[in-house]
Amino acid sequence: MIQICALASGSNGNCYYIGNEEEAIIIDAGISRRKIIERMKARGLDPLKLKAGFITHEHRDHYQGAKILSQKLNIPFFLSEKTLRRGHYTMQPTYVNTFEPGQKITVGSITVHSFLKKHDAEEPCSFRVEAGNYNIGVFTDIGETCERVNNEINQCDYLFLESNYDDDLLAAGRYPDYLKRRVSGEYGHLSNKQAVEVIENHASENLKMIFLSHISEDNNRGDIAMNAFKHLSDKYDIRLTSRYDATEVINIE
Which of 42, 116, 126, 204 has the most CB atoms within 10 Å of its CB? Predict the structure, then answer.
């Protein structure tokens, strides 16, 4: 059995769990070690099963809990060399393994595929995780999709997909103009509309479930994001993640 869960998803912290009966990994550690462990235990997930973590890029909401979690659980974190160099030294994990984007990394029976994406970081990557007979994608912090991202989405059975902002809320919101341009630009984030388009155009025939992720607190709402995907709800099981709590654990037989 494979289990997946978004432990946190949003600009105040991101962390995604993927595991089986014997071992597990997390993608990003953007909340504290204490919160990661508390949220795992609250959902019946054993922190001692964690064998590794993976960091997508150096921004604090994806990285800040890695150092202490690595130290306390004695696990390595995998990140690109440029991400390691760019990340603040106070967040660098105690145990580090670097990879080249595009490299495949094996952690026990779990295989993680890394690939570059567009975001305003030094060397941002996303990951597709092979666990059992399933492919789980964690695709957030993407300004615009590219051929790499589209090809990886096309292989996913389950997907954590960024649906960060609503165009109208962003345009009318309190962000200064330069920040609005950053969010909506080529190296910013995916809007609800863009997220829908990538599913319509590139989703695998085997895709079953989509978690709408990294939803902006200022420029989006869960009901608006869900409504954007409403016409796809007969085809996919569509759910929301939260910045304040873990989602329910999905058991994949």
Answer: 126
Sketch the domain layout of the chain as residue ranges. Answer: 2-252
Structure tokens at 131: 């666990």
| Each residue's pLDDT tens digit, 131-175 | 999 999 999 999 999 999 999 999 999 999 999 999 999 999 999
What is the spatial distance between Cα 62 and Cα 249, in angstroms, rounded to a whole number?
Answer: 21
pLDDT of residue 49: 98
Superfamily per CATH, domain 2-252: Ribonuclease Z/Hydroxyacylglutathione hydrolase-like (3.60.15.10)
What are the two backbone dihedrals, phi and then psi, of residue 44, each rounded to the nearest 5 degrees?
75, 20
Statement: residue 89 has pLDDT above 90: no
Q: What angle do CA 123, 125, 128 make, to 5 degrees?
A: 165
C-alpha 99/C-alpha 182 separation (Å) is: 28
What is the Cα Rg of the chain in Å?
A: 17
Cα–Cα distance measured from residue 51 to residue 25, given in angstroms and rounded to the nearest whole number: 6
